[in-house]
């Protein structure tokens, strides 16, 4: 587990440095090769599919980790569960990075962050409690 955490932290640092420069590390450079996915907005079927495809691609390309920059108010239970199930069987470490400053991982995002191999937060971000939400409005009866 310590090795996984060390790889994930090195991967985060490398990926964020290259992302800040708008570049990617050269192939065969000896540096950890990671994929970075940015998910913003509600967790819904299309965002779940993008997430699942990103894990599939990272596994296929033998990446050191998949870093997901997450900023979400929450979303659908079914989409959240699909994401969590895939994280739990992933052969590649999944790092949830709540970002940018002012961002959040609320409701479904909280559970997704908890399922990740490593969860990290940018300064000024938050993880919030999950609350039942009725899509049609009104009371949820809880």
Intertermini distance: 38 Å
Overall geometric form: globular
Low-confidence stretches: none
Approximate strand percentage = 15-25%
- Count of DSSP H/I helices: 4
Multimerization state: single chain
Query: In which range does the helix fraction lie?
Result: 25-40%
| Strand order of the biggest β-sheet | 1-2-3-5
Could you report the average pLDDT, rounded to the nearest whole number?
Answer: 83
Walkthrough of the structure:
It contains 4 helices and 6 strands; from the N terminus they run αβαβαββαββ. By secondary structure, the chain is α/β, with parallel strands linked by helices. The chain has a 4-stranded parallel sheet, with helices on both faces. The longest helix is centred in the first third of the chain and has 20 residues, at 2-21. The chain is globular, with a radius of gyration of 15 Å.
List the main descriptive attributes of the protein structure presented here.
alpha/beta; 142 residues; 4-stranded parallel beta sheet; two-stranded parallel sheet; 4 helices; 6 strands
Any chance you could write out the topology, listing elements then pairs?
Elements: H1 2-21, E1 34-40, H2 45-60, E2 65-71, H3 77-88, E3 94-98, E4 104-105, H4 108-115, E5 118-121, E6 126-127
Parallel strand pairs: 1-2, 2-3, 3-5, 4-6
Helix pairs in contact: 2-3, 3-4
């Amino acid at each position: 587990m310590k090795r996984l955490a060390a790889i994930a932290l090195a991967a985060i640092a490398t990926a964020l440095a290259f992302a800040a420069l708008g570049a990617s590390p050269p192939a065969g450079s000896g540096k950890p090769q990671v994929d970075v996915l940015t998910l913003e907005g509600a967790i819904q079927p299309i965002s779940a599919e993008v997430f699942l495809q990103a894990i599939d691609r990272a596994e296929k390309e033998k990446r050191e980790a998949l870093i997901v920059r997450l900023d979400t108010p929450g979303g659908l239970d079914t989409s959240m569960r699909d994401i969590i199930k895939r994280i739990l069987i992933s052969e590649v470490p999944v790092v949830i990075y709540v970002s940018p400053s002012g961002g959040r991982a609320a409701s479904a995002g909280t559970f997704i962050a908890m399922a990740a191999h490593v969860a990290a937060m940018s300064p000024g971000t938050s993880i919030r409690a999950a609350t039942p939400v009725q899509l049609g409005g009104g009371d949820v009866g809880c």
